[in-house]
Amino acid sequence: MKVLILHRVPYPRIEYARGIDHDFHEVTYFGVASLLATLPAGLRCEQVERPGKLGVFDEAQAWLTQTPRQFDRVIALSEYDLIDAARLRAWLRTPGATPNEVRLVRDKVAMKAAVHEAGLRVPRFVGLPEFIASPSAAAWRGRTVLKPLSGASSEDVVTFDTLEDAAAAIDTRRTGVPRLDAETQVTDAYEVEEFVTGEILHFDGLVAQSQVLTVTVSRYIGTCLGYANGQPLGSYHFPISPSAREWVETALKAVGIRQGSFHLEAIENGDELVFLEVGNRVGGADVVATFECATGVHMPSEELRILLDGKPSRVLPPTQTQPQWYGWFVFPGHTLGGESYEGIAGIDAFRADPALVRWIELPTGAPLARRITYSAHETPLAGIVAHDRWQGTRDWIASLFDVSTTLRDSGVKRFCAWPGAARTTCQ
User: Fold this and answer.
1) Is 1.10.10.10 the CATH number for 199-409?
2) Per residue in 326-367, pLDDT tens?
3) 156, 177 contact by CB (below 8 A)
């Protein structure tokens, strides 16, 4: 089979060779030089460098127009390339998700409308152009979230105390979002929605032929928006109920996710789940690693097999199989961009704790990334922890965050050297 991979995610985060037999298939990686450089030496494949000045589709189309060839599969595992991959499939007449199908998992207005039609609760919402033209189109008046239709990592997400505050900020170009504060506003790329209170859950797993094969549920400690604003973030697994699994199946069916991985977020509002958003991709941070620790399933590998063959390599466990409960944590550095890593003082007790599974930190003095990233080796500190009770995992991460918050609030710089070798094997 001839396989084209739109290569945006660094190779170590996917480990493509675990899911695609590169000696059997003819695999071509299409990406910018810095990402092609992440491919392991000796991997049997073709590497095609793109300039990176235009969109992926435009540059792939130009390349394939100059040197025509066909592919049996076009694969993109980055959320940012799903639309380009779908457009390329349509142009090449290659099987796989179409642009209209991908739109439901990239356009948050279309996504929530589809889930609402399926009978699940969603936050009340309205596209920004419609809201500007008719503010009464929004049927709420309290806390309001302004967000991009297809963003990720909570970039350009802003929360206002009232709908009126949001309207005033948009009108006066004081939202803090560059594309909305410019003289020419890009309003069609944004929406507003009501703020629904509750803790945020994320469901992760794999689906094939519209059937959920395996799934876990986790609860965030902190929020992605808080992380974007400089707060640590973590999450931990806990048991998934039959009703929650059924809810997941309904949501995935509503947005047409039939093949591959999913990362679905919901708000736990009392006894009810409120749909937030879903991606036809694996989650960030250490979602993949903790999922594998808990279930024995490496999601990217099985997703690749599903995309190539329509089915996984084996029968997958429906959910967690291990007795321990895993969680991950990550500290952001982008809000201190331009500074160096100075460490976290006063948390020696966590460093050698037996519950710690993996520990990855930047060297002292290393520059901090200027962009939002959840990736270990790019953030100041990231790790995985496990406990024989899910409450223990939750409490461990919460305690770590409490210490760092106390230090920050007391005016002590929170980043400091935290030496220790990473342990990567699951307990």
Assistant:
1) no
2) 999 998 888 876 688 877 666 777 888 999 999 888 888 888
3) yes
